[in-house]
Design goal:
The chain is mostly beta strands and about 190 residues long. It has a domain of about 120 residues. Helices cover about 10% and strands about 45% of the residues.
Length: about 190
């Protein structure tokens, strides 16, 4: 009888241990901004472009520079303010603007003059399903949804998925040229 009691207690402890490791801790970054971190992305259909890289190139306190492909609307690195559960964009006039929130239930008006500065409203929810990309399958992701199309109806980001300890793993954009949503996926990453 004593052995049965010990076995039941042992199974209970194993179950409790398994439950504590199923979700990320509060201190896990959804956008790990350490110098040298690199993410490689590509459209899910190669007809819409080649792979490109984002890389954290500099950090001074909470101010972080992220290099990404240059284009007519974003000629250089993006400068961010890392707040852990939030990441804000430093605009040209040195004013911080809401950019990302990493707490389920949060909503905000997002600024992004490099893509489409339409003051769109965003919200973040916990994604119940795993997200699979060429870089792997990610669980416990946060999904960011744009609630208002505002002025950017052709190439504005609609939905983004962020994995704890990894960063942005997938996003979909409304794109009439593509004939509907165009998905971009994480191909590989190196984060520390």
């Amino acid at each position: 009888m004593r052995e049965i009691g010990i076995a039941v207690v042992g199974l209970g402890l194993l179950t409790a241990c398994g439950e504590t490791t199923t979700s990320p801790g509060d201190d896990v970054a959804y956008f790990p901004l350490t110098v040298g971190n690199v993410w490689t992305y590509a459209p899910s259909d190669p007809i819409f472009g080649e792979a490109f890289v984002w890389q954290v190139t500099a950090r001074r306190g909470d101010t972080v520079s992220v290099g990404r492909p240059s284009g007519p609307s974003h000629p250089g690195p993006v400068v961010l303010l890392d707040g852990g559960a939030s990441v804000d964009l430093l605009l040209d006039n040195a004013v911080a603007a809401f950019h990302y929130r990493f707490t389920a239930g949060d909503s905000w008006v997002r600024r992004d003059p490099w893509e489409c500065d339409d003051d769109s409203e965003w919200t973040v929810v916990e994604e119940p399903n795993p997200v699979t990309t060429p870089a792997g399958t990610f669980r416990h992701t946060l999904r960011m949804d744009r609630l208002s199309a505002a002025n950017c109806t052709d190439a504005g980001t609609m939905t983004e998925w962020w994995a704890p300890g990894v960063g942005l793993v997938r996003w979909e954009e409304l794109n009439y040229y593509a004939g509907g949503p165009l998905a971009y996926e994480l191909l590989s990453y190196v984060v520390s």
